[in-house]
TrEMBL record, chain A:
This is Ras-related protein Rab-31. Keywords: Cytoplasmic vesicle, Endosome, GTP-binding, Lipoprotein, Membrane, Nucleotide-binding, Prenylation. CDD domains: Rab5_related. The keyword Lipoprotein applies. The gene is RAB31. Residues 186-195 have a biased composition (Polar residues). It comes from Phascolarctos cinereus (Koala). One of its GO terms (molecular function) is GTP binding.
UniProtKB/TrEMBL annotation, chain B:
One of its GO terms (biological process) is endosomal transport. Residues 832-978 form the VPS9 domain. InterPro entries: Alsin, Alsin-like_PH, DBL_dom_sf, MORN, PH-like_dom_sf, VPS9, VPS9_dom_sf. Gene3D superfamilies: Dbl homology (DH) domain (1.20.900.10), Histone H3 K4-specific methyltransferase SET7/9 N-terminal domain (2.20.110.10), Pleckstrin-homology domain (PH domain)/Phosphotyrosine-binding domain (PTB) (2.30.29.30), VPS9 domain (1.20.1050.80). This is ALS2 C-terminal-like protein isoform X1. Residues 1-32 are annotated as: Disordered. The gene is ALS2CL. GO terms for molecular function: guanyl-nucleotide exchange factor activity; small GTPase binding. One of its GO terms (cellular component) is cytoplasmic vesicle. It comes from the Eukaryota. Keywords: Repeat.
Length: 195, 989
């Protein structure tokens, strides 16, 4: 039997860039064995095979509005991966993305896997962010990067496969403290008693 | 007494006259000649009794006041004898009267009316009583003593006495005939009764109704004859023995009721290993004579064992004698001797146990001759030599020479034990009183005992009115226990914690009500020793190292204004030596402190005023004791009892000792409640008797039934699981209620609750394992022995949480007090906003506003309506405070989200999945409208107590979203205020 690894994934990005659309597409487009509990489009799960493991993505959406930025740490703490989404037709959203990356580097969980999604690639005729910029930036921070289209279902699968590949395989002799959560057994977590 | 006898003598006259006159009447033809002869016999006997009374009893009783004890005893016996004599006399008169009535009118008055026939038992009893006393008189030579003083008088009476005796030649001594005079006429009369009754029986014929009566009466008198013969033999043998033993030994052993039954000079027997020249068996004691000394053994406390399996028995004709303090064997010469001794001793024991010493052997007892005396007996005994029990008196059940069963043991020094005994030792439940000093005060132990030692749960009320409730081992407080002083004590205190060899040792909590302090920490030999936390009534809290009650080294002092002192300080909180104060604003002072003479304290140091970002974990959120007191070892003493119980395979007899109270089986319970007017218990209540528990456990293994069972078991204080919860609750309250409600202890408390859930689950599994093993199912060892059991969170925690909830939630409230205050302000401000205004402020997209839900009256505008939007979600969220179960709270939360989505879907008239961009503002709206108090405390309690399996999952997400709303409301506060002021005054007001 394949081990199921629960992976918390946090969605970051400006409002309107299509964070939840990407996830909706990812979760709903394909047949899923587990009928997953969801809260609207804000919390979704999907299980995909990866090597000899099953990765169960627990995908946490966040509010993209500027005023809620300060609440983001509550959402991304304990995440194994973050999907940061920008709109290729909006340079501003790419700037926000950089801020997120910076914040994650400083305050995010250690070894968090970052994936950059340039959404709305179907609208490349009004593109503001060149593909090259994104690729270079992603390389500089060691992140997965793809241009996606939630609308046309382009590269959605690949985005999460990219994340799966970046998750270090579980060493059975060690509770890897990479934010992954094994079913039924918790990783020893620093006791948390602050808000 | 002489008056009495005179009255008796006076009675004779008229009766005799009446008797004479009627005797002249010829007997009725219906009467048998036997009846006539009986009449004559009775008449003669009555006359004889009268003459004996006049000639013998009256002079005998005319003695002067007895001068010494012996004479008193002598007179007492004579008076008793005379009394019985009168009784016999009265009976004979009644017999005579009934005879005459019958003879006068035989046609109407039947044979069965004869007193002698229908009340033969009365006659039997009267004669027996008379001879019991008579033989006592013979045994102790009462007649000789009584006549010795007036020998002259009795010599002169010689002739007169002689007339009563038929075939006895009187010796020269005047009084020698006296005993015979008081005996022979009566025995002769009994003989006549027998003869006449037998003839009567024959005469009336087989079908006569009175025949049975006559034969029965004859039988009884025959029995009586043999009894009298035996009693006389025993009495004379006893009398002979007393004479032979001489005055010293004889007087020491001689009592009126004592009869010799067997003598080793007659049937040889040798005692060993005790030395004895002679062994005497009396009807009440067994005596070993050795020279001029002797040992007596009360037969009621003598057990004999004639079985041959005793290897140490040197002689095969021996048998074992067991008494409370001596054990020896008696050896006869041959098998016959052994049988004789064994049966006589056994029989004597049986009789002694029957207790009526004044009614010795009757013929009917011989049926029981072969019967073994019971092994289990009940009587009183005072120990003479045994060390522990020297001079102590035991009254209660015995078994083979040892106190065994229920009893009371009293020592001469006032100690007193009432309770169960086993093999001579206190065992089972007992109440033990120990007098305290000269006062009329006692230490009272109500406790379980095991082989003479206090063991298991007990309560001790000390003379100084403090009370200990807890566990004992080997007579000492050991394990977990609570010691509380009386409230009136000069320094009232309450200690709850661990004990070792009667002293406080290990983890424990002491509340000093006088100082208003609570010490939570380690103890050794009754002293604070090791790490300790002190919390005070005023909210100050510090952690220090203690050494034999003294504080040593630097410590951490947390003041109620959230400033922190690190360094050394005294018990009265005066700073000494080098230390560092960190103020709540982030300034700190490094200085050395000293107490000045009468003027506060002096200090010299550096005040750092550069604003440092202050880590709340360092000051206001600081948690004490987490490293010092690992949660696994904190309440070991409580768990220990339960673990031992499991490890010893749940012995039924130990259950009471370990739970501290008697538990009934379900059957007993039902029975005892049949008589109750109102049935207090749920009919399907869980039974607490371990046998029932173990039988029931395996039937509740599927999750649903297990949950129901655990719910009942954990709430029933009689069930072992419930008892564990009760003890843990007690310890928890003692630590965290009252002074202990200090935010710096939250960490300890929440850790403890979670750990308790684990331990209770482990205990349940232990019970289940034992239960399955008893049913013959071997449960395979669980591979996963790690400490975290998801079941503990899923099943146990929700059930036990209510027990800890008040104290725990208080700690959460204190811990989150500041945030909750900010949040409350935010809520208060937001509540001034009309719905539409608030939705606008939160940037909720307009198409999501549920304006349809607002029904307006004519003079209302949307902008004025409050608390109408998302009402269903708001109400749903408010319900989270109605339960303590974190899982239920989370379910409510989930429903709230669903309600929000439903409302939105209704507004949009299609199903709509809300992304977080839309959901969060709406949620903030709902949270601000729900106005839940202490939301911060709620959120964190849920998060800490939540089943870890949900981490990262839906519930975690929901809770995080709620928490982010809570945070946001705290921050948003000022801005909204400003907005309200500038923008929309008109709409607001």
């Amino acid at each position: 039997m394949m081990a199921i690894r629960e992976l918390k994934v946090c969605l970051l990005g400006d409002t309107g860039v299509g964070k939840s659309s990407i996830v909706c597409r990812f979760v709903q487009d394909h047949f899923d064995h587990n009928i997953s509990p969801t809260i609207g489009a804000s919390f979704m799960t999907k299980t995909v095979p990866c090597g000899n493991e099953l990765h169960k993505f627990l995908i946490w959406d966040t509010a993209g509005q500027e005023r809620f930025h300060s609440l983001a740490p509550m959402y991304y703490r304990g995440s194994a991966a973050a999907v940061i989404v920008y709109d290729i037709t909006k340079q501003d959203s790419f700037n926000t993305l950089k801020k997120w990356v910076k914040e994650l580097k400083e305050h995010g969980p250690e070894n968090i896997v970052m994936a950059i999604a340039g959404n709305k690639c179907d609208l490349s005729d009004i593109r503001e962010v060149p593909m090259k910029d994104a690729k270079e930036y992603a390389e500089s921070i060691g992140a997965v990067v793809v241009e996606t289209s939630a609308k046309c279902a382009i590269n959605i699968e690949e985005l999460f496969q990219g994340i799966s590949r970046q998750i270090p395989p579980l060493d059975p002799h060690e509770n890897g403290n990479n934010g992954a959560i094994r079913l039924g057994k918790q990783t020893p977590q620093a006791s948390r008693r602050c808000c | 007494m002489p008056g009495d006898s005179e009255a008796g003598a006076g009675q004779v006259g008229p009766d005799e006259a009446w008797g004479l006159s009627s005797s002249l009447t010829p007997p009725d033809t219906m009467c048998t000649p036997e009846e006539t002869s009986l009449l004559q016999v009775e008449e003669t006997f009555l006359a004889l009794l009268g003459r004996i009374n006049t000639l013998v009893f009256q002079p005998l009783l005319l003695a002067e006041e007895p001068s010494n004890v012996k004479d008193q005893e002598c007179l007492r016996l004579l008076l008793q004898l005379s009394e019985q004599y009168q009784h016999l006399w009265d009976l004979t008169q009644v017999s005579l009267r009934t005879l005459r009535q019958r003879l006068n009118s035989p046609a109407t008055i039947g044979l069965h009316t004869l007193h002698l026939l229908h009340s033969s038992d009365l006659f039997l009893d009267a004669y027996r009583q008379y001879f019991v006393i008579y033989t006592s008189c013979v045994a102790v030579q009462t007649f000789q003593k009584a006549t010795r003083k007036k020998s002259e008088f009795w010599r002169s009476q010689r002739k007169a006495l002689k007339q009563f005796l038929t075939n006895v030649t009187l010796e020269t001594s005047g009084a020698a005939g006296l005993p015979h005079v008081l005996c022979q006429p009566l025995t002769d009369h009994v003989q006549q009764y027998v003869l006449i009754l037998l003839r009567l029986g024959d005469a009336v014929g087989e079908h006569h109704s009175a025949r049975e009566l006559a034969i029965q009466a004859a039988d009884r008198f025959v029995t009586l004859q043999s009894f009298i013969r035996r009693a006389l033999d025993e009495a004379s043998a006893t009398q002979a023995l007393w004479e032979m033993l001489g005055s010293r030994l004889g007087d020491a052993l001689c009592t009126a009721d004592r009869r010799l039954l067997l003598d080793s000079q007659e049937v040889p027997a040798v005692a060993s290993p005790v030395r004895a020249d002679r062994v005497l068996l009396f009807n009440d004691v067994l005596v070993l004579l050795q020279g001029h000394s002797f040992q007596t053994f009360d037969l009621k406390l003598v057990w004999v064992d004639g079985r041959h399996n005793k290897k140490q028995m040197s002689n095969r004709y021996g048998f074992h004698v067991i008494t409370p303090e001596e054990e020896f064997s008696l050896s006869a010469k041959d098998a016959q001797g052994k049988a004789c001794w064994l049966s006589k001793v056994s029989q004597a024991i049986c009789q002694a146990l029957r207790g009526k010493r004044d009614i010795p052997v009757l013929e009917q007892d011989q049926d029981q001759e072969g019967a073994e005396p019971p092994a289990s007996r009940c009587c009183l005994y005072t120990f003479r030599t045994e060390d522990r029990l020297r001079l102590a008196t035991y009254d209660g059940s015995w078994f083979w020479g040892k106190p065994h069963g229920k009893g009371t043991l009293k020592w001469p020094d006032g100690r007193n034990h009432v309770g169960d005994f086993h093999q001579g030792l206190e065992h089972g439940f007992g109440i033990h009183l120990v007098p305290h000093g000269a006062e009329d005060k006692y230490n009272c132990y109500k406790c379980h005992w095991r082989e003479g030692q206090m063991q298991g749960y007990g309560i001790c009320e000390y003379a100084n009115e403090s009370v200990y409730k807890g566990y004992f081992r080997d007579n000492m407080r050991q394990g977990f226990g609570v010691l509380e002083s009386s409230p009136q004590a000069p320094q009232p205190f309450k200690f709850i914690g661990h004990w070792d060899r009667d002293k406080k040792d290990g983890y424990g909590v002491l509340e000093d009500k006088d100082r208003g302090e609570r010490y939570i920490g380690m103890w050794q030999a009754d002293h604070r020793h090791g790490q300790g936390i002190v919390v005070t009534q005023s909210g100050i809290c510090y952690q220090r190292t203690f050494h034999v009650d003294k504080m040593v080294g630097p410590g951490i002092l947390l003041l109620e204004d959230d400033s922190l002192y690190e360094g050394s300080f005294t018990r009265d909180l005066a700073y000494t030596g080098k230390g560092k104060i960190t103020f709540p604003n982030g300034y700190f002072l490094k200085a050395s402190f000293s107490t000045g003479v009468g003027k506060g304290f002096h200090t010299q140091g550096v005040l750092e005023t550069t604003a440092h970002p202050l880590d709340p974990m360092h000051t206001c959120k600081r948690q004490l004791g987490l490293e010092a007191f690992p949660v696994e070892s904190r309440w070991q003493g409580i768990y220990q009892q339960f673990r031992e119980f499991i490890h010893s395979n749940c012995p039924e007899d130990a259950q009471e000792a370990f739970l501290g109270f008697h538990v009934q089986t379900a059957k007993e319970l039902r029975k005892s409640q049949e008589y109750l007017f109102c049935d207090r218990s749920n009919p399907d209540e869980v039974s607490a008797k371990i046998k029932d528990v173990l039988a029931e456990l395996p039937t509740h293994q599927d999750p649903e039934s297990l949950q129901l069972y655990l719910q009942k078991a954990l709430k029933s204080s009689a069930h072992p699981l419930g008892k564990l919860v009760k003890l843990l609750t007690l310890a928890f309250q003692a630590t965290y209620s009252g002074f202990g409600a200090n935010k710096h202890l939250l960490g300890l408390a929440q850790e403890e609750v979670k750990h308790h859930a684990q331990e209770i689950w482990a205990f349940y599994q232990g019970l289940l394992r034992v239960a399955l093993e008893r049913q013959g199912q071997i449960q395979e060892e669980r591979e996963d022995t790690s400490e975290s059991h998801p079941e503990a969170y899923r099943l146990v925690l929700p059930i036990i949480l209510p027990c800890f909830y008040p104290e725990l939630f208080m700690l959460y409230m204190l811990y989150h007090e500041k945030e909750d205050n900010l949040y409350s302000q935010g809520i208060a401000d937001l509540s001034l906003f009309p719905d539409t205004k608030l939705l606008e402020c939160l940037d909720v997209q307009r198409h999501l506003w549920p304006l349809k839900d607002l029904t307006l009256t004519t003079n209302q505008r949307y902008s004025l309506v409050r608390d109408k939007c998302f009402l269903s979600a708001t109400e749903c969220l408010q319900k989270i405070i109605t339960t303590v179960d974190p899982r239920e709270k989370l379910e409510m939360l989930e429903k709230t989200y669903v309600e929000i989505e439903n409302t939105v879907s209704r507004v949009l008239e299609r199903e709509h999945k809300l992304p977080m961009d839309d959901l969060l503002p709406l949620l903030i709206y709902v949270v601000s409208r729900a106005r839940i108090q202490h939301l911060g405390a709620e959120i964190h309690l849920i998060r800490d107590m939540m089943d870890p399996i949900h981490r990262g999952g839906l519930y975690d997400f929901l809770l995080t979203a709620l928490e982010s709303c809570y945070e946001h409301i705290q921050k948003e506060d000022m801005r909204l205020h400003r907005l309200a002021g500038v923008h929309n005054q008109k709409a607001l007001w």
